[in-house]
């Protein structure tokens, strides 16, 4: 089952890469912004509850989809880019075993305990 979930996330990451390729931007934007959602880990400075909430919010693939679709609707390149980055980053994290966090600690994820 884990391999099937990873395969699904690889497909999601490839979709994000494809969507980015449809934008008229240099690939440096994708590479430069790819790890930006991880800044949400700063929430852990205020405890595990706030840390888990902030991390999870910026690692929701649905947030990425909503931002991307809003960008299409409003013809906003910034929203499209933000959506693609969040969506792609979340897929990559899940491939690597970083799931959405529980309030009990950073290593407790919906994919199981990390490490």
UniProtKB/TrEMBL annotation:
UniProt keyword terms in alphabetical order: Membrane, Transmembrane, Transmembrane helix
The record's section on InterPro entries has: DUF4260
Q: Which residues cross the membrane?
A: 12-31, 62-87
The domain of life is Bacteria
**One of the Pfam families matching this protein, by short name:** DUF4260
Q: What is this protein called?
A: DUF4260 domain-containing protein
Question: Which source organism?
Answer: Leeuwenhoekiella nanhaiensis
């Amino acid at each position: 089952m884990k391999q099937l979930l990873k395969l699904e996330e690889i497909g999601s990451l490839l979709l994000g890469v494809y969507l980015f390729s449809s934008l008229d931007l240099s690939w440096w934007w994708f590479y430069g912004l790819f790890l930006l959602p991880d800044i949400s880990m700063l929430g852990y400075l205020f405890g595990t509850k706030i840390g888990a909430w902030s991390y999870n919010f910026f690692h929701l693939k649905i947030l990425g989809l909503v931002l991307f679709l809003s960008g299409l609707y409003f013809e906003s390149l910034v929203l499209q880019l933000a959506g693609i980055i969040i969506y792609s980053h979340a897929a990559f994290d899940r491939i690597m075993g970083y799931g959405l966090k529980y309030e009990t600690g950073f290593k407790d994820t919906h994919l199981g305990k990390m490490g």
